[in-house]
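Q: Trace token order:
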Amino acid sequence: MKKIVYYIGAPFRFLYKIYFLLVFLVLAIPMYPLFYFLLKSDKNVHKAFKLKKIWARIILFFTLIKVQKINPELLPKSPFVVCANHASYLDIVVMFVLIPETFLFLGKAELLKWPIIRIFFRNMDIPVDRTNSIKARQSIELTKEAVKKGFSVAIFPEGLIPSEGVPKMKPFKKGAFVLAISQQVPIVPITLSTNWKLFATESDVFGPGRPGIAKCVFHPPIITKGKSERDMPEIINETYRLIESKIVY
């Protein structure tokens, strides 16, 4: 019976994804010149962030996705490092609704190669080339400077959306934890519980694609003051455990 329901719903899921893409592009194209001029100077970071929040809310409104925040009062004052699971392209859009204050993304360098999309990340967010250890370390140094200036940083510590087994998480990479410990700022674990059920990646064009509630759970901050790299394995395990505990399978 489940297979029958799956095949019947496949065309509708595919059409929803096409609709989502059209909404994204229709909104992105007129905003392109605004971001282009704003992000020419790093003095406009806060203005650009506010515009990104508006852009994200409009996308979610027209695609009939409602963000449900659970325990948002646990979010500390900036700066902090957000760590969240990554199982959907919806994750980035939702993150702009979750975090009220200006933050920067540490994301894959490939984003800067994508037409239109790259302008939203240029000169504000920090690209990381995980295939090049030297460039990856340089990216971490840039995030350290951002934190020193008072900015929070959002990182998907898995690195990439898993190619299979979603929503089961991949092992976490160390970058987010090196950053938090070196700058002695808290780690904020966030579980994006249901995004994977609402919008799957391009690897499964007939996979999940529908309106619904994006349930997002804030966990208590993990304090890094007084911690060193010797404590990193324990901190990584605790962050992983917290995030995994609220994924809706």
